[in-house]
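Progress narrative, work stream C.
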Amino acid sequence: MLEMTPERYAAMAAAIEAEVGKVIVGQTDLIRGILVCLLCEGHALLEGVPGLGKTMTLRTLADAVDVEFARVQFTPDLMPADIVGTQVIKTSESGYSDFEFRAGPVFANLVLADEINRATPKTQSALLEAMQERSVTVGGVTRPLPRPFLVMATQNPLEMEGTYPLPEAQLDRFFLKIHIDMPPTDELVTILERTTGTHEAQVVPVANGSDIAAMVALTRKVPIADHVSKYAANLVVVSHPQHGKAPEMVRRYVRFGASPRGAQALVLASKANALLAGRPSSSIEDIRTVAKAALRHRLVLGYEAVADEVASDQIIEAIIEAVPEPGSGIRGAP
C-alpha cells in the first residue's frame, strides 16, 4: 500500500468530494464538513429543513469510500434496542435454547441518524456510548464497532412540530455542527434537471477503509505550533461568561461556554483543513475557518439570546474578534 503523504491525502480527498459531487449539487460546505468529521474520527450534526439532500450525501460518501452504510429513521416510538441491537432467544435443533446477539444498524461504518430530535431523549442517549467509546454494551458484553465509524445525525429546526431538544451531553459529542441552507436558483435548476429526468450518476469507489484509516492517522500527525494551540484554547476559554475577558455578547447571552471537547475539535479540524488545502501544518486561519462548526452547538444560550434573536454564530464571531493572535500585541491574551 502506498504511503499516505500530504499530497496523496489532498488528492484522495479531492477525488472523494468529486465523486460525491456527481450526485449532490453544490453543498460544498456540507460535503467538506462531513469529510472532515470522517478524517478526524468525529461525528457530524446537520441542521436544515427536510429535502436538502442530507441522506443522499452520506449514502453517496459511503459508495465513494466503499464502506457500509446504514440509516435509522428516528421516530417517537423508536427504542434503544432498535439502534444498538438486542439479545434474542435462539433454539438449536437439539432443543437447547440460548441468547444470541442481533446487531443493530449502528454496526455499520457510516450511520445516518435521520431526524434524531424526533425521538425521545432516552433513545437519543442510546448513541452516546457508540459515539464516544466506539463500542456497544448489550447483555453485559461490550462489542467494538467497525472502523472507520461515523454517525451523521440530522435534525429539524426546533420550532418544527414533534421535535425534542438534544441533551447537552450528546450535543458535545458531535465533532461539528453543519447548517444547511436552501440552494440558490441556479443550483436548484440543476437539481431539477438531474432528479426529474433520466440522469443517473454512477459513483465509483475512489478510496477504501484502509485509505481512510491512513488519512485519519496522518491527520493526527500534523504539527501545530504552540501559539496556534494557545489561540484555540483562548477561543474556548473566553466563551465562558464568567471569564474576565469574555466579550460582552458572551456575558450577556451565554449561560455555559464550550467544553474541552470544543478545543479538541478546533485543533483536529484545523489539521484536516490544512491537509485538505495541501498544507503540511495547521495555522490560526485554519482554526478560524472551523470555529463556527466546532463551537456553535457547544454554547448553551440563555433566554435573552432567544428574545433578541441572537444566534450562536454571531457570538462566535464576537469571540474571534475579541481574541487576538498570541503575541500580536493588540490586546493581552486571555
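Work stream C, second folded protein:
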Amino acid sequence: MSEEIFAADSRKQKVLIVDDNAMNRCMLADILEDDYEIIQAENGVEAVAVLKERHFEISLVMLDMVMPEMDGIEVLEVMNKQHWIDNIPVIMISVENSAGYIERAYNLGVTDYIKRPYDAFSVRRRVINTIMLYTNQKNLVGLVADQIYEKEKSTNLMINILSHVVEFRNGESGLHVIHVQNITRIILEKYAEKYPDSGLTESSIATISLASSLHDIGKISIPESILNKPGKLTDEEFAIMKTHSSVGASMLESLSFGSNDPLIKVAYEVSRWHHERHDGRGYPDRLEGDQIPLSAQAVSVADVYDALTSERVYKKAFTHEKAIDMILGGECGTFNPRILECLKETSDMLKDTLNLTAAEHLSPRGVKNITEEILKNNALKAPGKTLNNLENEIAKHRFLQSISREIQFEYGSDPSMLNISEFGAKKLGLPENIPDPKNSEQLLSVISAECLKELSEAVYKATFEQPVTEYECDLKIGGESKRCKVVCLTIWADDDHGRRDGVVGKVFDAE
C-alpha cells in the first residue's frame, strides 16, 4: 500500500482541558472535538498528573484559573518548574478578570486568555493560531539549530586542520589540540560552577575551548630546526620561539574577515597571552593578575599540563599526578589561584578524559568518536540575529503571499496541517488553516476524496531529483466545478530516511 502525504500524521493533536466545572469542559470539548483529541482534567492536581505522564504528546492546555485543590496559577508554577511551559502553550479560561491576576498568569507563560461565555468560532480560531504559533517556533528553532550546527561543525573542522598542521611541523602527537580543548572546557565548566559571577556561559565556554585550538598558530613562523630541536634551546633560539605568541596574534588580527567575530577575538587573546603568568613574569607583554583574560589563563594551564604529560623530542612524559603537583607547586610559573582550585578539583576527570582520548587515538573509530565528542560538547545556541533574519524572511513571504491573487498553499506533516493563502482561502470558501486535512469535511467539499488521494499518491512519487508534482483535477470554486492544475514542491526532512515533511504549491486554471 502506498504512503499518502496527507496521511503522514493522521493522529489528531491532543488538547488538555482543565476545569472543575464539567459543563464548561463539555462545551469546550464540543467545540474542538472534530479537530482535536480531547483530554479532560477536573482540577489542577489531575492536570499535573496527566502532564507528568503525557506532556510530550499534548499540543495545548486550556486552563481554568479558579479551581479547588490546585488552582491555575499553581499549575502554571509546576509547568514552569518542570519546563513543560517551554513546549506546551497554555490558554487561560476563566471568569476571573482582575488585572493583577491576569498579569501574573501571563508572567508565568500563558499565551492567550479566553473569557466565558465561549464563542465557538473565536475559540477554534485562537486554538488553531496558538498551536500553529508554537509549531512554527519549534520548526524555526530546529532550522536555526541545524544551520548553526553545520556552520560550527565546519569551523571546528577548519580550525582543527590548521592547528594539526602546526602540530605536524612541531613533531607533536596530534592529540595536543584535542587535549587542550578538553582540559580548557573541563576547567572552565568547574570555574563557572564555583564562581557564577564570572559571566561564563555554555556558549562562551564552547567558544574559548574552540579558540584554544589556535593557541600555537604562530609556530607556523618558527623554523623547524628550533621547533624540533631535541636539546635545550639557546638564549637566541628561545627568544625566537617566544615570538610565536605575538606572531599568532598578529596573524589573527590582520584577518580581512571576522574581525568582530567573538571566536576570532577570543583566539587573539589565547594566542597572544597564553604564556603570560599571574605574577607578571610571562611573555610577551608581562601582564599580571586579572590583566590576563580568563580565556588565556585557562588555556595557559591546559597547555602546561598537556606539555608535562606528553612526550616531546626534548623530554619524557610526566605522570598525571606529577604534572598536577608541579603546576600546583609553582614549578611551571604562577597561575590564577582560582584556576588552580578548578584544576585540582577536576584532576580525576582530566585523567579519565585524557586516557580515553589517548587510547582511542590510533584507530579510525577512535578518531570518529573523538570528533563526535568534540562537536557534541560544543553546546551552541542560535544567535538572536540569525533568528531575527529568519523571522524577517517568514514575514516577507507571508506579506507577498497575502497580496498575491493566486491560490497558494503549504502542507506540513508534523503536525498535519494545511495552510492556504488569504486570497486562496476566500476564493475556495475555506479557512486559512485546516488541521488533519485528509479528514476535513470542509476541504472535501472543494476537492473529492478520490482526487485528494490521487494527489497525495502523485506527491509520494516525487524524488530528490524530481521534487515537483503536477496534477489536474476538478475543484469546486464559488459553487461551480472548475478544471485546475495543482503544482507543488515536495519538502524533505533533514535526515537519512527520505521522509517527506510536506509540500508547498499553487493552483492554476487548467482550461
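The chain has 20 helices and eleven strands. No further action is required on this item.
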